[in-house]
Amino acid sequence: MSEFNDNRQPRRRRTQLNAAQYAGQQTLDNSIPLIRTEDAPMQPTNPPRRNPQPPLAQQSTNPPMQPMSAAQPMGAAQPMSAAQPMRPQGMNQPGQGSQYAQSGQMRGFRGVQGTPMQPQQGWNNGVQPLDAAHQLEQFPWGQNPTSMNTGRNQPIRGGQMMPNQPMNPQRPQNPPYPQQNYGGWQQPMYPVNFPQYPANGNGGNGGNGGGNHPPTGLGGFNPEHREPKNEPVRRKPSAQKLLKRILFCACAVAVICGLVAAGGAISNAIQEQNEREALVASVTAYDDKYVPNVYVDGIHLGGMTRAEAEEAVTAHANQQRDAWKVRLMYAGQLVREITSADLNMTVDVQEALDAAWQPGHTEGGIDARKATMDALAENPYEGYSATPSGDNVVIDNILLSIAQQAYIQPVDAHIIFDSNNFNNPLTIQPETVGRYMDTTEAKNQVYQMMSSLVSGEVALTTRELQPTTTKAMLEPQIQLRATAYTPISTTSTENRNLNIQVAFERINGKMLAAGETFSFNTVVGKRTKANGFYEAIEYAYGDQRMGYGGGVCQASTTMYLAAAKANMTILKREPHSDAVGYTDYGKDATVSDNRIDFKFRNDTNSTIFIVATVMKDSRYDKSHKVCVVSIYGESLGKGVKYELETVTVQTLPAPTEPEYRKDTNHTYATYVDQEYTYRKATDGCVVESYLVKYVGGAETERKLMYTDTYKAKSEIIYVGTVERTEEGQ
């Protein structure tokens, strides 16, 4: 039969596959067409997986589907009668057992005889029917794979029928199935989306045996199935052969390591030789040149020959020397200018160049020279060619002269004691801060600038010289500690008043250092005419009589009162034998040239200043002149003062019998019948004196100073010694 039809087009023919080509494979469904590769260039899309047809002996006895009537449109589903419900193929009528159900090979049904499983709804296992485009592509001659060989709708796994309806063109196309070529014919490969099955085969869909592989009872082709291969059995090598292999490998490794080590040693030796040659070349390159990092007068001589260096340094040195000068400045003002002519400066280039040649040339070997060159890279050599004349005497003298002019002697603050200014006898002269110029730093700087021929300015600086004593230190030391006064009687004679003034003139302005003792007799001196005293009535051994220095006891008493109130340490004090008219019992202090003195000591930490004078001052006495003594020194403390207070502890009655005395000098009485009462009888007493301390007006301390006894005095009557005669009556 001809292979071409009338219009000479190649005829597409269907050919049954050779059974020999599928040896060991499962039998394909006769309804699946085979397509030649050259007849179908386009890859087919995935057709719906159809349920395999069971053997004829096992097919269901359900009546076949009724053909569609002419009035029924193509693609419409055929109606089912109520008496014959739709059942999956291979399923018996109710009450009848099925071979699939009995053998457990029918997927979707339990393995219990006569008990059908409910069919799965929808497309089984995600397999969808082909749409129209797929049908045309898969079957170019227009045959519907669902109705081939049967002429009716084929059942789909899951228990539903696929109606003869046109496929939805909107449904997305499945990717094409892989194809398998059998001698020029191409068999579409369906996806193997089989579920996992247990190893015992139960629950499978007609598969034989267990394991994780798809069932074979569906009539489909399983491309993953492979026959086991027969491989020869390998034997393990013996222990002797294994040991030989290990020894051989170890020897090979040792030989390789030795070769590598030898090659490395040779390479290192070559590298060291190259490095040594490079080092020697870097050093010997400066055999006739200055090495790097060598400077003279700021000129880098590295790489220069000696002649080149001498020429460069000489020209630079001469130029620098002629232009060199240093300006000495103080507080922004020019004090003095020093030039090279002042110093008679000379230039010694050769000496500086010789010294600069030493580094890098005189060390000896290559390594030593290289070490010197490396050290110069860190600390360059710097030399200078200028040298000053002599020992820099010119510079020293210039700076010394400037320093002497700038010097100011520091002056301590000091106390000015003007004892004649009674109201303000002490003032403080403030301190004066000194100044001196330390020329050491300036001198070194000028030396450096001269040796390097660098011109410029040098600032001269001064430093303060602080005094040892300041005004602030002295102010607490000139505070008024105490003032005492005694009134001078209006009956006091002129000579007596003069004696008081003489004593105060020698006491006034007296300064007593810390720890020093004051002696009244030492300060005032002997009461003699030669010493400037006058005759006046004085107390002597309980009596009043004329003598030089009469009245000085009032000066000593006033001094005692001031010293006690100033909290001085009283060393020696004697009371009068009788009461005095210028102070109370227990507050007096008598003195005598030979045996009685008044002494006290300054136990404070600073000097005390004594002011003593006779004056008329209404603050003390409105009608009389007064003796005033003030003591200044270290402050007693805030609100602190001392007072001398007395207490009479006993009264001594006066004798009742008068005491008669002959007036041999006829001062008071001449004749024996004449009497003159010189002194009336007075009582005596025992008095205690206390030094009382007050702080803020309140008594805080009371200390007993003395217990004085004043004897009772009998009446004294002077009687004349001349008898009256008859002529004298």
For the structure shown, list the relevant keywords.
729 residues; 3-stranded antiparallel β-sheet; elongated; alpha+beta; disordered N terminus
Assign a percent range to the helix content.
10-25%
Q: Which oligomeric form is depicted? A: single chain
User: What would the average pLDDT be, to the nearest integer?
Assistant: 75
Q: In percent, how much strand structure appears in the residues?
A: 15-25%
Number of DSSP strands?
A: 32
Our measurement of the CA-to-CA distance between the termini, rounded to an integer number of angstroms, reads 230 Å
Q: Any low-confidence stretches, pLDDT <50, length ≥5?
A: 1-187, 189-221
Alpha-beta content class: alpha+beta
Strand order of the largest sheet: 18-26-25-19
What's the number of helices? Answer: 13
How would you describe the shape?
elongated
What is Rg?
74 Å
